[in-house]
Each structure stands twice: as structure tokens, then as C-alpha cells.
Design brief:
The chain is an all-alpha fold and 193 residues long. 73% of the residues lie in helices and 0% in strands. The longest helix is centred in the middle third of the chain and has 31 residues.
């Protein structure tokens, strides 16, 4: 019964287009989750992951990030900065009268709050990527018990490029989520989580 329903969905041109669009963006998301950030020694990260493989805290981090965070991939931060920004703005609508007024203004106010959420997401992504990279710069700090040099070249410019790439990765994921919600199947942010 379920397979026939899926087959019927694929025979409907509009629905097939939406399903394929969603699956395509999810495939690109998974590719970016394994694509290492420039400046990261991928082989050293793999050796460190092998060292801490049995540790439950690292397994939990890998679970929530889909394996991207510990690999310092382009999409390492995932959608978490966006979720954090959304929660912060929802809490601030109670405290700041201007945001509460925007929330009550309907579609136009909600669009403005969404714009504020995007800006806050980028700020949080910069902070989070900087924090993760500062840990990764010191051998043994990101992966307890592994003294590999994960970032061999620790010049200011390469670190800056890494922060920019990881922040841009978060912005792309946020965009993917919005595209899936508009043109695909389901809530894009939920699917990317």
C-alpha cells in the first residue's frame, strides 16, 4: 500500500518535481557535510575520530551534527545557529515591545522578524565557528586524547577563511531549508535537522 502511494506520487508531475527537488537539496547537504573545510587535515581528523570512537560524548556530538561537526566540514555547524537564533528572537518578542509589535503586524512583521533571525544566525555562526576552530587549533583540545595537528597551518588568513567558509555553509543550509519549505515537500529546516 505504501509503495503504491509513493509510486502514485511520482507519477504526478508537480509532486514528482517537488520530491526530486527536496531529495536533490538533501543530497547536496549530505555532500557538504563530508566536504572538509579548507585548511583542515582530513587524515588527522579521521585518525582522531578513530581514537575517540568509543566515547559516548563524541558519539552524541556526531549524532546531532550528522558527523559534520567533528570532521570540521563546510556544513559543520548545520542548522543549529538558525534554531538558536529563532529561539532567541521568540524569547525577545516577550521582552522587547518593538518585536512584539512586529509579531502582531501579520505578514509584514513576520517577514521583518525572519530577516532579524537571518542576521542573528550569521552572527551566531561566526561565533560558533570561531570557538570550534580555536579548539581545533590546539592538539588534544577538540579530541581528548588525540594529539594530531588538525589545522597544520594556523595563520590568521587561513583561520579567517575557515570561519568564512563555515559561516557561509550555515547561510547556505539556511537557504536550503527555506527553498525546501517554499518549493519542496515539508518543512525544510526540520528535514535538514
Amino acid at each position: 500500500m505504501h509503495i503504491s502511494a509513493f509510486g502514485a506520487a511520482l507519477r504526478t508531475p508537480d509532486l514528482r518535481k517537488k520530491i526530486l527537488f527536496t531529495l536533490g537539496l538533501l543530497a547536496i547537504f549530505r555532500f557538504g557535510s563530508v566536504l572538509p573545510t579548507p585548511g583542515v587535515d582530513y587524515a588527522a581528523i579521521q585518525r582522531c575520530i578513530d581514537v575517540v570512537e568509543g566515547n559516548s560524548i563524541y558519539a552524541l556530538i556526531n549524532l546531532f551534527s550528522g558527523g559534520a561537526l567533528l570532521q570540521l566540514s563546510v556544513f559543520a555547524l548545520g542548522i543549529m545557529p538558525y534554531i538558536t537564533a529563532s529561539i532567541i528572537l521568540q524569547l525577545l518578542t516577550v521582552v522587547i515591545p518593538r518585536l512584539e509589535t512586529l509579531k502582531k503586524d501579520g505578514q509584514a512583521g513576520q517577514a521583518k522578524i525572519t530577516q532579524y533571525t537571518r542576521f542573528l544566525t550569521i552572527g551566531l555562526a561566526i561565533l560558533q565557528s570561531t570557538a570550534i576552530l580555536s579548539l581545533a587549533r590546539t592538539p588534544g583540545a577538540l579530541f581528548s586524547g588525540c594529539n594530531e595537528a588538525i589545522i597544520p597551518d594556523q595563520g590568521v588568513w587561513i583561520i579567517l577563511v575557515m570561519v568564512i567558509v563555515m559561516t557561509a555553509g550555515t547561510a547556505v543550509i539556511m537557504w536550503f531549508g527555506e527553498l525546501i519549505t517554499e518549493r519542496g515537500i515539508g518543512n525544510g529546516m526540520s528535514l535538514l535537522i
